[in-house]
Write a structure and sequence with these properties.
This protein has 12 helices and 5 strands. It has about 290 residues and is α/β, with parallel strands linked by helices. It is globular and about 75 Å long. The structure holds adenosine-5'-triphosphate and magnesium ion.
Length: about 290
Amino acid sequence: MTIEIDRFRVREGKRVRLKDLPTDIKDLYKSKDDYELILADHVRELSELQTLLYAHHHYSFLLIFQAMDAAGKDSCIKHVMSGVNPQGCLVHSFKRPSGEERDHDFLWRTTRALPERGNIGIFNRSYYEEVLVVKVHPEFLQGQGIPVELLDEKKVWDERYRSIRDLEGHLNRNGTRIAKIFLHVSKGEQRRRFLKRIDEADKNWKFNVEDMAERKYWKQYMQAYEECMEATSTKESPWYVVPADDKKDAQIVVSQIVLDSLRKLKMSFPDPGDAGRKKLLEIRKELEKA
Ligand code: ATP
Ligand code: MG
């Protein structure tokens, strides 16, 4: 089953109004069994494409996840990537930067974690935090050690968007394909998930007191996300606003986005060529005798 993903894509240069974009859609599956079948189908093809990506060894694929707390980034990564060979896929989670990380430019720590040719990289949060949480809390910016004469708060966000666009353009020109996912959860659904994390003992560990503080900045975050996606969604490295109030729908959409992104790549298994094939046949004969 193919899901039309274009309706979730942020078009280059277009305004983004998150309150007009759905956090919930008509279910893409008929029942839990149906959901499992659809996802299993996606995961199977994804695994085949990953093998091809690895064998072809020219492209790499970077999938970026950004979202408010409890939007389901972790479970989405877990389910969508469940059938993928762990040797060709690395997940990196980016938390508050360490002292060493803050002592470098804001793209340094993520650049070191970019996927190698043939690999899939997943960023659970990313350099986008630098124009999201840091924009909502400018005191983080002040703590980054940037020379004061270079830090004009009126210009800094546009400069950061430009750095990000330049980086992504550069990666694209060198064979890294990028898709960026914003899991769009409603404030009401976040509340329900927080309550569940408090009420169910085995979910308590997931609840972070700071998450409650960030919830109070919901409006500011939405505005920062809108501005960020408007400035950085490009044809080559698009943002997708994925409705995330229903985790199953979100996982189906995200797996479809990954599939469509990989299907577009011109890839083939390496051809040994006539001489290589001849050599293989000689070895085959030798093996038959052994
Ligand atoms: P989960 O809550 O599902 O475990 P998470 O991604 O929210 O996953 P946390 O450890 O709860 O992980 O939060 C990481 C925090 O680090 C987030 O609040 C995020 O905004 C913050 N963070 C990430 N990058 C930066 C940054 N560059 N500057 C400041 N804060 C950042
Ligand atoms: Mg968190």
